[in-house]
Amino acid sequence: MEITRTAVVKLSVPDKRCDDLKRTMNTFQDAAQRFVDRGWDGDDDGYVITSSNHLQRLRYDDIRDETALHADLCVGAANYAADVLSSVAEKMKDGERTSKPVFTSNTTVYNTNAITYFDGYCSLAAYGGSRVHAEYLYPNDSIQAEYMERDEWTKQGAKLRYDHQTDTYYLHVSIKKEREESSGEVENQTVLGVDRNVDGYLAVTSTGAFIGNADLLNHKRREYERRRARLQQRGTRNAHLTIQSIGDTFANWSEDFFHQVSKELVKEAVLQECTAIVFEDLEGIRNGISNASKFQQWGFNKLKRQVEYKAKAEGLSVETAHPQYTSQRCSATGCGFTHEGNRDGDEFTCQKCGKELHSDYNAARNIAHKFIQNRRKSGSGGATYHLALKSGTVNGTGDYSPSTA
Q1: Cα dist. 296→258, 303, 318, 325 in Å?
Q2: What is the pTM of this model?
Q3: Which of 11, 141, 164, 401 has its CA 20 to 30 A from that of 38?
Q4: Are residues 389 and 207 in contact, defined by beta-carbon separation less than 8 angstroms?
Q5: For 82-94, what is each residue's pLDDT tens digit?
C-alpha cells in the first residue's frame, strides 16, 4: 500500500538569490496564465482544453521563447494550468457558473527535473538556467524533518510558495512510502465517530475529545474578508499586492490549523485502538447554501481530506454515515429515543430516559452508531463493529465492554 504525504518546509534563501527566485516565480505565474488563456479559448469544438500535452503542443514553444522560463518549469506551468482548467471544466459539467481562472498567488510547480533534494537543502531551477540552493528550516521536533531526511520517504515534485507578508518561502514537497498491507480479515473493528461543527469545537469525537477552535477559524476568515473588501474598494496596485499577501497569510495559517486538528483526530483514534474514523456524509447539502456555509463546507472537506491521508499512514480507514437525526437521537445504550426537543444548543437531554450529554458528543456517538448499524445490515465482511466511547466500547447489539486502560 502506498502512503502519500505533503511535507511543508520553510526555506532559507541566500539574500543575493532572492531576486532571482522572485523573478522565477513571477515568470512561472505569467507562463501558467498564458497556458490558461489558451486553454480557456477552447479547442476546435469550443470545449475548454484540459490536457497538458495539448496545451504544450499549442503554446509551449511560444511561451518558452517569450518568457525565457526554464524548460522543466515551462512544462510545470502547462501541467499547473491543465489541473486548474480540469477543475473548472468539472464545475461546468455540474452546471456551476465559472469564469476564466486568474493566477494571483505566488506558486511555482517543480517536477523532479527542476528540483534536486540533498541532506539539509535543495537545488531549485531558476530564471535564465541558473539554480538556487536553499536550506531547510525545521522547528524543534518537527515531523517535517522526519519526512525530508529519512530514506523511507521518497521525495517527488514540489510546489514553492511565497508569503509576501513575512517574506518567507515555503516548499510543499510530495512524498511517498510503501507500507505492507495487513493480511487476513479483521474480526473486530472499533469505530471513532466524529461530529464537525461550525462553531465551538471544530471536531468532537465519540470518545469525548473536543478538538479545534472553530470560532477562531471563523474569526480569522471574517478578519481576512473585511480587510480584502476594504482593499478592493481602493483599487490601487499596492492594494492588489496587499490582497495577495493577506490571502497567502490566511492560506498558510488555515493549512497549519487543519493540519493540527487532523493530527489530533488521528492521534485520538490510534490512542483508542480504533480501526476506522467515521464522519457524517455532507455531500447532499452542498447546493443552495450561503457563502458563509460554503466556507464551512470547505473547512469540513479540508479536515476530512487531511484526516484521510494521515489515517492511511496509520492503517486506519475513513468512512461516512448519513447525518439524519444524529443530533436528535439519544445515544444512550438501549434508548435511541429521537425527538427535536432533545437538543437545546450545546446541551442534550433525552426526553425519555433523561440522559444528559454535550450535544456534539451525543451526535458523534450517533454517527458511529449509524455506521455500525448500516454495516450490520449489509453483513459487511463478517466483522464485529464496536463504537469507541469515553469509558469503553459498545457493539451493534448493545453489548458494552469497559476500557481496560
Answers
A1: 13, 10, 20, 20
A2: 0.58
A3: 164
A4: yes
A5: 999 998 888 888 7
